[in-house]
Amino acid sequence: MTAMSREPLIVYIAGLMPKPEAGRHREQLLRCLLAGIARLDPLVATQIGERDAFRLVSWNYDFYGRYRDISLDLADIQAVIDRDGASEQDVLAATSWKRRIAIWLLRMADFLPFMLPGVAGEETQVHLRDYFRYVTDRRGIGETAREKLKTVLRDAGQAQRPVLLLAHSMGSVIAYDALWQLSREEESEARVNLLLTSGSPLGQRIVQRHLLGAGETGGDRYPDNIGAWINIAATGELTAIDRTLRDDFAAMINLGIVRDIGDIEVFNYYHMQGSLNVHAEYGYLVNAVTARCVSDWWRATTAADSIRPGRDSA
């Protein structure tokens, strides 16, 4: 096994809705991530940018049959890269009473599902439609998405590459299900050293009821291949309406399946065509909290590899 094969790998899986063609999508995602890291740790940003260390799991075209035009987003992506934090207006918009009421109603509907049709906005209803299309695995569409991720993780496991899995929104559900399958159905040695979720709906009861393994008991209920888990959720989120996951998945810590689960709240200051979008993946990636998590993981991982016995001759 060569030193190169143990290169750290950052894997990214996106949420619902059509995305740009994979190459252009990856380029913009990486731009945002590196811009955020460069403000805190220029050396790590350079190292990640120079190596084959960022892999996009592109599943959305198979699901929707179309791409999003990247030109619609380029100006907004550049704008969020040029900024270094949320403005006072962003904070006010994310914490407005209208948004707080919308979140409260959605949380109530999570406990009382009969309320959902009356409180879900058009965008939420679209997301729910697509979520249940994934859950019911129509024409194998859910398994197709999971298999794309599992293939990358299996390859990384065989090469003994440490993995940080970045999963945004619905991507966190696909990631969780794929990790459960790898550890509980396949008994694969593939592991994720750090799972970093953002804008995740995994705190919702409606989602938890449909997770793979939900019907199992004890440790078999959960994936057994995650080193640590950090969840990042933006103030004002209408997808991550439950912004804390540690309480929902505390059994994983108690059972010794995961070292720790941490929850961090942030302000996502991405603007989409002039309006604040606290759920946007580009805004999460450029955020200083995401940057710090990735940078700390990268430094810890590369430092550990540099002192491993036989590194140059294994």
Describe the structure.
The protein has 314 residues and is α/β, with parallel strands linked by helices. It has one domain. It has 14 helices and eight strands. The chain has a six-stranded parallel sheet with strand order 2-1-3-4-5-6, sandwiched between helices. Strands 7-8 form a two-stranded antiparallel ribbon. Helix 1 (22-40) packs parallel to helix 4 (74-82). The longest helix is centred in the N-terminal third of the chain and has 19 residues, at 22-40.
Short description, anyone?
With 314 residues, the chain is an alpha/beta fold. The chain is built from 14 helices and 8 strands.
Give the SSE layout.
Elements: E1 9-13, H1 22-40, H2 42-50, E2 54-57, H3 60-64, H4 74-82, H5 88-94, H6 97-111, H7 116-119, H8 122-136, H9 141-158, E3 163-168, H10 170-185, E4 192-198, H11 205-208, E5 226-234, H12 250-254, E6 261-266, E7 271-272, E8 275-276, H13 281-286, H14 288-306
Parallel strand pairs: 1-2, 1-3, 3-4, 4-5, 5-6
Antiparallel strand pairs: 7-8
